[in-house]
Amino acid sequence: MEETDMLVSNGLMNILEEGSEEYQLIKNGFLRGMGFMGHVTNVMAIHKNNVSSSLARQARFDSFMIFSKAVATKCGGDPNNVMRYAWYGSSLHNLKDIVSLGFQNDHYHHHDHHQSHGVGVTLFSSKFSIDSAMCTREDESGLRHVMLCRVITGKMEAVAGGSKQSHPSSTHYDTGVDDISSPTRHIIWPAFINSHIHPDYIEGKIPRELWIRDVRSIVGDALLHQVISESSSVNVQFP
């Protein structure tokens, strides 16, 4: 039994209907963030976190919402203004563990292509799903998987590439980003990885014809992000 099937059979996740508005919204948002790779990527399935499957999981979600209200109060605004959707890519095994048990220290990204912006869990802006896709690994069926999460970003601070920062520089800040004006990466500090991130969906996909990593090695980061930015000029609003 595949690991996504196990999540469904255990009641931890539900399969979204392909024709549903929710499915189409998430699929189209992901493909838009893939830029010119969108037309060679197939979304095979989307699974939704079933937070009501147990008291513990419901409590984790309730705790996340309480933290969002607390951060919003600190920042003087609405909870919706301190939360964003962001993508996290890894192996399916890691994503299953995250849905089941939460984030751990070994879920930090350490890939060669990933320039560190501090120590913590790195998620990628909803408009840059291609970056999360580059952190994935094929499962036994040849599929790659990404996770769409709700993230409490609060007051963000810029963190330089190569930094070893592992906590806010002051109580004024909550999370880190690579670029304040147009963030691609969101860095959630170790102390907040389970209070400020809630996994909502796991999406399985197949990139065809071209490998994302090969494209990046050929055109480089600057051109890749320029092309994606131009094709992702419309903000994606997830449910």
From TrEMBL:
State the Gene3D superfamilies in the record: 3.90.228.10
What enzyme class is recorded for this protein? transferase
Domain PARP catalytic, residue spans: 1-239
Tell where it localizes: Nucleus
What would be one Pfam family of this protein?
PARP
Q: Which InterPro entries match?
A: Poly(ADP-ribose)pol_cat_dom, RCD1/SRO1-5, RST
Keyword terms, alphabetized: Developmental protein, Glycosyltransferase, NAD, Nucleus, Stress response, Transferase
KW Nucleus (keyword) present: yes
- On whether Nucleus is a keyword of this UniProt record, the answer is yes
EC number per UniProt: 2.4.2.-
Domain of life here?
Answer: Eukaryota
What is the recorded name of this protein? Poly [ADP-ribose] polymerase
What is the species of this protein? Stylosanthes scabra
